[in-house]
Amino acid sequence: MKLDEIKEIAKQHNIKTGKMKKSDLIRAIQEAEHNDACFDTGRVEECGQHVCLWREDCK
Fold this sequence. Notes:
The chain is mainly α. It has helices spanning 3-12, 22-32.
């Protein structure tokens, strides 16, 4: 997903994007949605979220 699309989702959650990195921004969105903020933390195989919006980009 492109950064502009991610920033749009963040705005829907009233997250101020500023100069946040993509990973930090996605984790902030995950937290706002009351999900485990696990994006890009190396836990992709352990998270159990196989239908996650961010799964394709996660490491």
